[in-house]
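Here comes just one.
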Amino acid sequence: MTIHRLAMGTLLLTFLLIVFGGYVASSESGMGCGPDWPLCNGVLVPVLHGETLIEYTHRVIGALLAVLSALLWWKIRRSQASASVRRAADGMALLLVLQILLGALVVVLDLPAIVVTLHLLIAFAFMALLLYLWRTTRPADRPASRPIPLGFLIQHVNLILLLCTITIALGAYIKHQSYGLACDWLTCRESWLPVGEAQIWQTLHRLFALATAAYTALFAAINLANADRRAAAGLRNRLVALAAAVLLQLLIGVAAVATNLDIAWAVIHLAAATALFAVLAELRIWLGSIR
C-alpha cells in the first residue's frame, strides 16, 4: 500500500474515532470499562453489552488507529520523503503517544471536562497532520493559471481555523460539564443575557459558532465571486465545500438544541464540526502548497 493510501485510511479511521467518541460521550458510556486502563473491567476482553460494549468498541478503534499510524510513520521514515513530510510524521507519532496517555488519564480521573476537551483538541491536531501527509503524498493539482492572493487567503483561513478550534473546544467543555441545554438557541430561557456559569459558557460557545459561521460564509462568498477571475485550479470546489460545510453545521447545531441534544443529532453535530475543520485544514494546506 502506498503512503498516500495508507494516510487516507488512517485519516478516515481518525474521523470515525472522533465521531464515535462523541457517541460514547452522548450515551454517557465513557466509564463503561470502569476506572481500568488498558484493561476493561479488570480483563482484556470483557462481557460486551451496554456501556461496556460502546466504550470497548471505542478502545478497539483507537488501538487499530495506533497500529495504522505506526505503520504510516514507519513507511515514511523508510521512504525518500521530504524533510517536511518526515517532520509531520514525527509530529503525528508524538501526538499519538500523547493522545494515548491522555486517554488513560481521562479514564483514571473519571472524565474531567478539561482533560476530555484537551483530548479532543489533540485528536483534531492529529487529524490535521494526517491531512498534511495525505495532501503532500498525492499528485499535485494543476497550478493556477493566474496568480491568486495567497497572503490574503491564508491569513483569513488561519483566523477561521482558530475560531473553529475555539468553538469546538468550547463545545466539548460544555458537553462534559452538562451545560449543553443551559440556553435555548436564541435565548437563555427567559432572558437574552446569560445568568450563571452554565449559561455563560453556553453563550460563549454560541457566539463563537455564529462568528465562525458568519466569517466563513462571507469569506467563501467573496472569494467565490472572484474565483473565475483568479482561475485557480481547485479553489472554487474548495470554497463551495467550505460554504456547504458551515451551513450544514449551523443547521445541525440548531437541530441538536431543538431536540434537547438527542444522541443522534449530537453525534451528527460533532461529525459535521469535524468535517468543517477538515475542509478548512485541507484548504489551508492546499494554499500553502502553491508556489
Notes: DSSP finds nine helices and no strands in the chain. The CA atoms of residues 72 and 173 lie 31 Å apart.
